[in-house]
């Protein structure tokens, strides 16, 4: 798969959120999308998944501009975790993934379902019969991630997949993404740079509505000779905030 973003621009009214985002990425790339709060990462993920339409520019998949409504065939090639994951909470995790398998018309999905859930959920034999409504935030997040992978998508779009995950769960998800990486083109965002460092082959850094860096992780780190966080701070200016008097926080009344 080859995905090209051609001068992708998104505005909300007069506010430019993304301006002229251009890149070409292929199967095997895992693109870590970085930027400060409000930089436009989720907006980009929403454009990639046809939740939002660009103001101008194009998304081109294998040479085909996708237009306003992505063809169903293209949607079947995608797995996406954007905005808040929607789960049918009266189902067990297994029932929920069986439901997802039916949507994608996947016969004989049971072995996939069991291996994904057993990899991601601790104590799977106990929790497999519980309803999702009784699951913790992190457990639900892992089921949502499993549902994105079930149909083996060629384009995987994961907006902040590590949200709510403890260190062990994050490790299982990282292992899953790393082993799946050769099969797909992955876009992933996270404010946890250690996670991005472990999974991304490429980086897309967005700031002031524009692409500040697009290229390999290796080039980004080599050029700066630093850890990812330090290199990122050097690339984008710190946010400006007005100095506030906060002594009330620590002064005895
Ligand atoms: N539907 C909308 N209408 C108007 N403005 C919007 C809309 N969606 C997003 N924005 C604005 O676009 C900008 C980018 O938001 P976005 O959610 O893409 O940022 P982000 O990089 O994902 O941030 P965070 O790291 O905090 O999740 C923000 O200023 C936000 O207020």
From TrEMBL:
GO terms for molecular function: ATP binding; ATP hydrolysis activity. Residues 3-233 form the ABC transporter domain. Transmembrane segments: none annotated. Keywords: ATP-binding, Nucleotide-binding, Transport. SUPFAM superfamilies: P-loop containing nucleoside triphosphate hydrolases. CDD domains: ABC_DR_subfamily_A. Coiled coil: none annotated. SMART domains: AAA. It comes from the Bacteria. Pfam families: ABC_tran (PF00005). This is ABC transporter domain-containing protein.
């Amino acid at each position: 798969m080859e995905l090209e973003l051609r001068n992708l621009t998104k505005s909300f009214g007069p506010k430019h959120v993304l301006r002229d985002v251009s890149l070409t990425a292929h199967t095997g790339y895992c693109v870590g999308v970085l930027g400060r709060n409000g930089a436009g990462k989720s907006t980009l993920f929403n454009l990639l998944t046809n939740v939002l339409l660009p103001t101008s520019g194009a998304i081109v998949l294998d040479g085909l501009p996708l237009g306003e409504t992505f063809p169903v065939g293209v949607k079947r090639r995608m797995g996406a975790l954007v905005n808040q994951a929607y789960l049918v909470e009266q189902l067990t995790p297994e029932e929920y993934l069986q439901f997802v398998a039916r949507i994608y018309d996947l016969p004989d999905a049971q072995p996939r379902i069991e291996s994904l859930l057993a990899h991601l959920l601790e104590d799977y034999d106990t929790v497999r019969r519980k309803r999702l409504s009784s699951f913790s935030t992190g457990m639900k997040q892992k089921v949502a991630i499993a549902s994105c992978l079930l149909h083996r998508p060629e384009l995987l779009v994961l907006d902040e997949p590590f949200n709510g995950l403890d260190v062990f769960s994050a490790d299982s998800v990282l292992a899953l993404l790393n082993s799946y990486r050769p099969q797909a083109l992955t876009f992933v965002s996270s404010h946890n740079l250690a996670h991005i460092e472990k999974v991304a082959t490429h980086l897309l850094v967005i700031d002031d509505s524009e692409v500040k860096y697009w290229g390999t992780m290796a080039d980004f780190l080599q050029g700066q000779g630093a850890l990812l966080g330090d290199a990122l701070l050097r690339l984008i200016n710190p946010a400006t905030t007005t100095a506030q008097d906060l002594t009330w926080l620590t002064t005895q009344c």
